[in-house]
Specification:
three-stranded antiparallel β-sheet; eight-stranded parallel β-sheet; alpha/beta; 11 strands; binds zinc ion; 11% strand; TIM Barrel
């Protein structure tokens, strides 16, 4: 590692030596001592190694890093023999170009259908120059500057629209995600992943059952199994669409028919846009519940700037998990409900909330208030590919800002698994495995002296991305 700048405690203004050595007898004391004495790089390494339970809030398309997308989409063996083109060169002045068009990437069939005048603006993905390739990669993630929300919702997604319909690429990228999560000790991934709407290279729809079988077969391959990451999926529906109610019914039927892999349903899309408010879907969910056995709902709510009752209204839809819940803190009645109930978990996404401007100053994020007043919470990565971050970044953010204790870290992981929508026997196995991983972690870093544990961290090689480099100057080689 290249960081041994200063002990983390000094950066925090905490005093060293505040922990009596007798406290190190239990791991909570050792963990506190380690966080006080570790350099930022050592602390990151420690958190990289921490068993982290599950990521419950993850959009499979937004989770893909640009570099993964490039590698998969330029290798015919990985993307089903598809060829991708991206709009890299414009014949009109740059100030007349719609920003969503820059680096919009499309499949061969769409490319062939372009007017002859447009084709010269597109470049085969594998033929991008080094500079174009770098700019293409950067165009698929937020830099942290400017209006993140507009950039994210209006610009980034249209650029990858043409990629997300390619089933082999989407499935291959899912396995890339599993590999990365496995490396940082995330044991369960419940990602929003749909196979409906997939198109073959000839532009024809891929039959749904054929697509399901393809995914199932890929997940059974040795490299996917070796990640140690258990995967389950949620279907999602863009809440603001005019036909969102019928889409909810379609998605509900799909999940009900594929319950071994698909375990829940979500509503997604920008919440403060006005058309996708939760109560719009109340009668839809009620009529679906009259027709199908229980189906778990995790729904985005409270990803808002100002106060409203969206979280309350979303609970009324039947959701047992709330995605984000940032403005729950501004709705005292509903907050009280969640503090007392323990049944509903809030999926917290710190880096997402920062970059999209819902919590620009993360030190004022309501996460610690939820965590420490009895609201079940866990940490998640949301669209990590677009933030170019990982789960360790979420933990590092939480530990450095809110001084999480070891017990709190353990509780985050446990809550993520206990509130997962995986089948009960799968959930029980995940919790048992998590306990075993915790014991091994505590034995590894609890043995010997604190100096021994710090020395052991030198052998850890965390994989970090541009978010960690840009935000904390953390990079490991
Ligand atoms: Zn989300």
């Amino acid at each position: 590692m290249n960081l041994r700048i200063q002990p983390f405690a000094i950066a925090l203004g905490l005093s060293l030596g505040a922990v009596p050595s007798s406290e190190a007898a239990d791991f909570g004391g050792r963990f506190r001592e380690l966080t006080l004495r570790a350099s930022p790089g050592e602390l990151y390494s420690l958190l990289y190694e921490v068993p982290k339970g599950g990521d419950l809030h993850n959009h499979s398309d937004g989770a893909n890093r640009s570099e993964w997308i490039y590698a998969v989409c330029t290798d015919p063996a990985l993307c089903g023999g598809e060829t991708f083109y991206t709009r890299a060169r414009f014949t009109s002045p740059a100030d007349a170009v719609d920003p969503t068009q820059l680096f919009r990437t499309i499949r061969r069939k769409a490319y062939e259908g372009l007017p002859a005048s447009d084709k010269p603006e597109y470049v085969e993905l594998s033929a991008l120059s080094a500079d174009e390739r770098r700019r293409w990669a950067d165009s698929l993630r937020l830099s942290g500057a400017g209006d993140g929300r507009t950039e994210f919702f209006a610009h980034l997604w249209p650029r990858i629209d043409g990629i997300t319909t390619c089933l082999p690429a989407a499935t291959e990228l899912l396995v890339e995600s599993m590999k990365a999560f496995g490396a940082e000790h995330v044991g369960y991934l419940e990602t929003q992943f749909s196979v409906e709407g997939m198109l073959g290279n000839d532009g024809a729809p891929v039959p749904t059952e054929q697509a399901v079988a393809f995914v199932r077969a890929r997940l059974a391959q040795p490299d996917a199994v070796a990640t140690g990451v258990t995967v389950r999926f949620q279907e999602n529906v863009v809440r603001s669409e005019p036909d969102a109610e019928s889409e909810v019914a379609r998605a509900y039927a799909f999940v009900a028919a594929h319950r071994d892999l698909w375990v829940g349903l979500n509503l997604v899309g920008i919440e403060d846009e006005g058309h996708g408010y939760p109560s719009r879907f109340l009668s839809t969910f009620r009529s679906l519940r009259a027709r199908y056995p229980t189906l778990a709902l995790s729904i985005h709510a409270g990803e808002m700037d100002g106060p409203d009752h969206h979280v309350r209204d979303t609970l009324l839809l039947g959701a047992t998990r709330i995605g984000h819940g940032v403005n729950l803190i501004q709705d005292p009645d509903t907050l009280l409900l969640l503090q007392q109930g323990g049944r509903v978990l809030v999926e917290v996404n710190l880096i997402s909330n920062r970059l999209l401007g819902y919590a620009p100053d993360l030190s004022r994020h309501p996460f610690p208030e939820y965590l420490r007043t009895g609201v079940p919470v866990c940490l998640n990565t949301d669209d990590r590919g677009m933030w170019d971050s990982n789960m360790t970044d979420e933990y590092y953010t939480a530990v450095t800002l809110f001084h999480l204790s070891w017990a709190e870290i353990v509780e985050l992981g446990r809550a993520s698994l206990a509130h997962s929508f995986a089948q009960p026997e799968v959930r029980a196995a995940l919790l048992a495995r998590y306990s075993g991983q915790l014991s091994a972690f505590e034995a590894r870093f609890g043995a010997g002296t604190t100096e021994d544990a710090l020395r052991a961290l030198a052998t850890v090689r965390p994989v970090t991305y541009t978010y960690a480099r840009r935000t904390w100057g953390l990079e490991f080689r």
